[in-house]
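Quick one:
INPUT:
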């Protein structure tokens, strides 16, 4: 049986920060490496379908690379965090350290790489694969934490719960009458802020590596910050 997950402010703040990182990473993926997503794989499934149909001028290969790398990351994350849990380690830290290492590797690989929208080179796709693997780890971590309203890699459910539990929706199942709307609203704003920051940096002419440096720093800091959080487990 799954234990109740702690929802203290420090954990919520950490997950909201990671949501902002997702927005930044997806801005880089879509605008500087793609068109391709690395965290929101629903977009890649559709891009791949459009590419296979040869409609919309969307190449299928980048989406296929991202999907495969994401799967590998999710498998690796699930296995590593299961081993960590069995040994009594902080499994959340394992996932964050792995994600941080992969984002740092992606930044190093793309350090002097010029952003390119459309027709990505092999090096662009290597960066994409590293980021998608990192986001695979992130999704495992996020799903294990299971913090309501903050999935960190998409905001569709957060927006639905935010509206459904608001004075307009009045749905008790979505927390109407509680303060849950604050966390959900912050998650949506964090994704927007991360995407906006990434887009502005792309517009400023930063290289791919420079664009990913802020994400690498933030995720690395989050990996260190996890030590202050309670142990999370599913025993």
């Amino acid at each position: 049986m799954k234990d109740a997950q702690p929802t203290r402010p420090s954990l919520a703040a950490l997950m909201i920060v990671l949501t902002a990182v997702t927005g930044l990473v997806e801005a880089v993926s879509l605008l500087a490496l793609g068109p391709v997503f690395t965290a929101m794989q629903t977009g890649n499934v559709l891009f791949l379908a459009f590419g296979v149909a040869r409609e919309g001028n969307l190449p299928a290969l980048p989406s296929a690379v991202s999907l495969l790398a994401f799967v590998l990351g999710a498998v690796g994350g699930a296995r590593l965090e299961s081993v960590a849990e069995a040994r009594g380690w902080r499994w959340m830290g394992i996932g964050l350290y792995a994600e941080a290492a992969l984002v740092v590797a992606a930044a190093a690989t793309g350090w002097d790489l010029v952003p390119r929208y459309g027709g990505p080179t092999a090096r662009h796709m290597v960066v994409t694969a590293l980021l998608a693997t990192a986001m695979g780890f992130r999704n495992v971590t996020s799903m294990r934490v299971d913090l309501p309203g903050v999935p960190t890699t998409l905001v569709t459910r957060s927006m639905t719960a935010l509206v459904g539990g608001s004075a307009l929706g009045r749905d008790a199942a979505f927390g109407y009458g509680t303060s849950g709307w604050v966390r959900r609203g912050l998650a949506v704003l964090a994704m927007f802020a991360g995407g906006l920051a990434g887009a502005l940096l792309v517009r400023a002419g930063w290289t791919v590596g420079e664009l990913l440096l802020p994400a690498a720093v933030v995720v690395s800091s989050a990996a260190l910050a996890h030590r202050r959080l309670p142990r999370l487990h599913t025993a």
